[in-house]
């Protein structure tokens, strides 16, 4: 392959939004769409679970000027591993539109590594047409504060004592590190759930993982001035060496560490009852993320349930369509071998 061009002139800028499961990527994308200031945006959204949930959630938001065509779903698991089959063709399709977007937001799945995606911008088919304007890593403040991505300190100590290069054996930590190491800007999100001391601890933890200083901006519900995110002009595809990764050239990203399943979510008598069931499911060994929707008898709206770690939230997002089956569904993502039986038992009530 020839050396990548470094000019960004005439290219459509793309912002890659990365961040662990449930960190707040979709929330940020919605905020950016709502505050696009007249700019024609399009969104490519990739999910690990097969529910097509994030896409429907963004598309159903009723944002003015944002049509169904502007939201493209890439549901095949993990964008970083399906670059040739899914990502490049989807991007070309957007660029070939009669009225192409002025800026493209790409929301990766929470388990995707951003670097292979940045690299894909050097593919001959697209490299003269698009550039990575910036990679934004959304960090789940409370999850980091609670040590979710911390390695087992005993294991690290043992490795160091044996003079072995310190290698993370924690798939959560590896994904987290790869995501922040690729970033041009980090959003410390869910700042409303962490006190000031906690936020400082999280920043120190982030800094510990980074070889260079990257700006960290505190956000709640992804509310950030869009100009901070859009228009960074990073041309990240020409700057790959500055973005180290745990996963080397040609090395496969090990999805075998994680598992996902879509389960039916039976109706419950009340939102509280449904949330209680989902919260119980969230406690099952190895579960990382739950999201889905269900019907509540007598309610014309569908109820969305979101679990990140053990925190479960809910809200009504839209009315059920006329004749639409009110079958609830829940995507559960966890570490390989998570306790599916316990999840199913919890959901059955
Ligand atoms: N309290 C609080 N909740 C938040 C914040 N940002 C997002 N959430 C909630 O966290 C949950 C996950 O948010 P999403 O935006 O769906 O996260 P995501 O990163 O897109 O999730 P995946 O696509 O599954 O990886 C939702 O219930 C959000 O409402 C925040 O700043 N504060």
> Would you state the CATH class of the largest domain?
Alpha Beta
The tally of domains stands at: 2
Distance between the termini: 56 Å
Shape: globular
Family: Belongs to the SIMIBI class G3E GTPase family. ZNG1 subfamily.
GO cellular component, one term: cytoplasm
Keywords: Chaperone, Hydrolase, Nucleotide-binding
Catalytic activity: GTP + H2O = GDP + phosphate + H(+)
Give an overview in words.
The chain is of the alpha/beta class. The chain folds into two domains: 231 residues, P-loop containing nucleotide triphosphate hydrolases (Rossmann fold, 3-Layer(aba) Sandwich), CATH 3.40.50; 93 residues, 2-Layer Sandwich (Hypothetical Protein Yjia, Chain: A,domain 2), CATH 3.30.1220.10. Helices cover 29% and strands 24% of the residues. A seven-stranded parallel β-sheet has the order 3-2-4-1-5-6-7, with helices on both faces. The chain has a five-stranded antiparallel β-sheet with strand order 8-12-9-10-11. Helix 10 packs antiparallel against helix 11. The protein starts with 11 loop residues before the first strand and ends with a helix. It binds guanosine-5'-triphosphate. Guanosine-5'-triphosphate binds next to helix 1, strand 9 and strand 10.
